[in-house]
Amino acid sequence: MMTSVAEARYRLSRIAALLSILGALHVLSLLLNWYVVSYQNLEIQVITGYLLNESMLISLIAGALAGASGVLAVLYSNFSWIRIAVPAMGTVAGALALGSSLYSYLIKMPSFRIEFVPQIGFLSALFSGGGLFAMGLLAVIIVSRTRVERQTHAWGRPQTLSYDMHEEVTTEPETITPLKTLDREQPMTTQYLRSTTKTEGTQCIICYDKTVGGEVAECPSCGATFHKDCIDSWIDLGGSCPSCGAAISKE
């Protein structure tokens, strides 16, 4: 399964943080006892990691590379740099850290022709080096499974952009109805109020009082009833039926 760029960058930042921690632990292991040696079964001496010059130098370089990978992952947001720096620096730091421990055990200490026994410092350096190398390989796997989608510039696909813009412009006017233009071209015909004797059970929709007695008018469009005085004042203000909006006029 492929990994997106955002997820890969998040995972690489986590790996870079672990690389920095393991690199610091590997350097600190130089302060611990790496070997206990005995000469002719008479004298016992403890050798720390920083007394082995070659191993100390290689371990310092490995720790510096591991720490630098964490700093680069934090400071640089460009994934093209991170995807190269973190796996490369992690694997190289791991290889150097393992090489430092194995060099002291297989080459340096046997050259003294004395008996020696590895101690906690050597084991810490060995395991931290193995962790660095494993994190570097994990970063390589993440980068190899990352799907990078390149964005095409606007001039790379002119036909698609022109087509989309054309569709947006041509389809928009089809959904718009010029209501205001139709209203101006087709004005409503003014109708005259008509008197009515249908007053029982009706209500003036202007004052909301019952139309009992007096002069009552009726809208010819919707049949709404009004007091004569109410509708006369209403027509003076607007000239349209308060119920249906039809243009009306006094008789």
List keywords for this structure.
Herpes Virus-1; three-stranded antiparallel sheet; 7 helices; 251 residues; mainly alpha; Butyryl-CoA Dehydrogenase, subunit A, domain 3
Topology, element by element:
Elements: H1 5-28, E1 33-39, E2 43-48, H2 53-75, H3 79-108, E3 115-118, H4 120-144, H5 158-174, H6 179-185, E4 191-192, E5 194-195, E6 216-218, E7 225-227, H7 228-237, E8 248-249
Parallel strand pairs: 4-8
Antiparallel strand pairs: 1-2, 1-3, 5-6, 6-7
Strand order of the largest sheet: 2-1-3
How many DSSP H or I helices?
7
Helix-strand string: HEEHHEHHHEEEEHE
Helix share, percent: 40-55%
CATH architectural type of the largest domain: Up-down Bundle
- Portion in strands: 5-15%
Q: Major sheet, described briefly?
A: 3 strands, antiparallel
Uncertain stretches: 150-171, 179-186
- Taken from the alpha-carbon principal axes, the silhouette is rod-shaped
Structural class: mainly alpha
What is the CATH topology descriptor of the largest domain? Butyryl-CoA Dehydrogenase, subunit A, domain 3
Number of structural domains: 2
Radius of gyration: 45 Å
Number of strands: 8
The CATH C-level name of the largest domain is Mainly Alpha
In whole angstroms, the N-to-C terminal distance is 84 Å
